[in-house]
Design a protein that fits this description.
With 456 residues, the protein is of the alpha+beta class. The protein folds into two domains: 279 residues, 2-methylcitrate dehydratase PrpD (Orthogonal Bundle), CATH 1.10.4100.10; 119 residues, 2-methylcitrate dehydratase PrpD (60s Ribosomal Protein L30, Chain: A). Helices cover 50% and strands 8% of the residues.
């Protein structure tokens, strides 16, 4: 006789949790957004357009696009090459494109890249409904709230088990974001979460491959479809987070329900940070430290003997590919990104992830870089120690974990990044018009007007 299975429901998750969290997240969208929250949402939208459009010619996007065009569907939503596809297809392709370069924003507390599952779903829905710019910003805030608060009570268990939070939690966030645009009530949105949760997936084992950006596109498509199905009356269960054998039990096992409501009056949008180097967030602090060291060293940067990089141990199995052989692997290689920075190469240009992989000088420098974990190192921090050939030692510590508090400075940096990424494809005039439109999108009667700059 088989032994009885242990209980599969997580301990301490109260009944009604899903509905309560949905109600909280939707209330973010129904009330007026604080000025700073709306401004950060605009920054994320501009950043999303830039990184997604810049990746349009990349192989994962073109392969997916070919599949979507062969399928055919009602062409009601705009792709970032100006063509059109169905809403779900647009969410899938635009979402995938926005994560291909691994240059999109991040939310370190939740381990979710917030924009890539949310904006593709929100904008695909907005095109069919003439939604005001204020409504799409509010939908984004609601989606960030839901996915981030679910992540809070899951702690590290979900990620530790091998799930990609952007894929799994992003699908839930996209569901609530679209539900807010559709005006769904709490009960229907809770059912929509059930529809999304049963489809959610995405494994960290696929990091460094074309599948990682596909996770983001899938999350956007799943969330969009789930909310739209719920609006038509499709049902799931209204308690998917807390029920026995539900999301908590299967995807993590160890939850802290109280953590959901930590700082309940503070928008989780405040936790968004942006990348200024086109690689995994775990590489950002090492890059910044290397750039500072190169500036300090001057001409002596050509005399580097060895490099020691101390990082948080969890990044050792995320972005520590020692000898990358593809552009995707390069974005998950601290050694490669550090070598680029120390040698004075761009950490954005496409050549840094293609031709630079075979550069003998860079390859030799990569071999002299040692990355190790340090238990006391805080999240998204790094310490880089350079020993020159003459024995002199230089060290620098960098902290990439803190969101920018000066929103004027953040806006300037994101606008500059957008110009770098958009001008080659859109031209200077259309790029400046897009930047101006996005940064004042509350005035748009139809948020889909942002897409006019991508149409030929």
């Amino acid at each position: 006789m088989n032994a009885p299975h242990p209980p599969l429901h997580p301990v301490g998750l109260p009944q009604g949790l899903t509905r309560k969290l949905v109600a909280h997240s939707l209330s973010v969208a129904s009330g007026g957004l604080p000025t700073d929250v709306a401004r950060i949402a605009r920054h994320s939208l501009l950043d999303w357009f830039a990184v997604a459009h810049a990746a349009w010619r990349e192989a994962p996007v073109q392969i997916l696009l070919a599949e979507v065009r062969e399928e055919g569907a009602n062409p009601c939503a705009t792709l970032l090459d100006g063509s059109r596809a169905s809403a779900v297809q647009a969410a899938l392709v635009n979402g995938t494109a926005s994560h291909v370069l691994d240059f999109d924003d991040a939310h370190l507390q939740s381990r979710v890249h917030p924009s890539v599952p949310l904006w593709p779903a929100i904008l695909a829905q907005a095109e069919g409904g003439r939604h005001h710019g204020i409504a799409v910003l509010a939908a984004f805030a609601a989606g960030v709230e839901l996915q981030s608060r679910v992540a809070s009570c899951m702690g590290e268990d979900h990620y530790r088990l091998g799930w990609h939070n952007t894929a799994t939690l992003g699908a839930l966030g996209a569901t609530v974001a679209v539900a807010s645009l559709l005006g769904l009530d709490v009960d229907r949105t809770a059912h929509a979460l059930g529809i999304a949760a049963t489809q959610a997936g995405g494994m960290r084992a696929l990091f460094g491959t074309m599948c990682k950006p596909l996770h983001a596109g899938q999350a956007a498509a799943i969330g969009l479809r789930a909310a739209r199905l719920a609006a038509r009356g499709f049902q799931a269960v209204p308690d998917i987070l807390e029920r026995e054998q539900g999301f908590a039990a299967l995807y993590a096992g160890a939850w802290d329900a109280d953590a959901i409501w930590c700082d309940a009056t503070t928008s989780r949008v405040h936790g968004i940070v942006y990348k200024y180097h086109a690689s995994c967030y775990g590489t950002q602090a090492p890059i910044e430290a290397c750039l500072q060291l190169r500036q300090q060293l001057g001409a002596a940067a050509a005399e580097i003997g060895t490099v020691e990089i101390a990082i948080e141990p969890q990044y050792l199995d995320v972005c520590c590919i020692a000898n990358p052989s593809t552009p995707s692997e390069a974005k998950f290689s601290i050694a490669h990104m550090a070598a680029l920075a120390l040698a004075g190469h761009s950490t954005v240009a496409a050549e840094s992830f293609t031709a630079a992989l075979d550069d003998p000088a860079l390859a030799a420098l990569r071999q002299r870089i040692r990355v190790h974990g340090e238990a006391a190192m805080p999240r998204a921090n790094a310490r880089v120690t350079v020993t020159l050939e003459n024995g002199r030692v230089h060290a620098c510590h960098s902290d990439a974990s803190r969101p920018e508090t000066d929103l004027d400075r953040q806006e300037a940096r994101i606008a500059s990044k957008a110009r770098t990424l958009l001008v080659p494809g859109l031209g200077a005039e259309r790029t400046e018009a897009l930047i101006a439109t996005v940064l004042s999108c509350e005035s748009l009667a139809d948020a889909a007007d942002c897409f006019i700059y991508f149409r030929q």
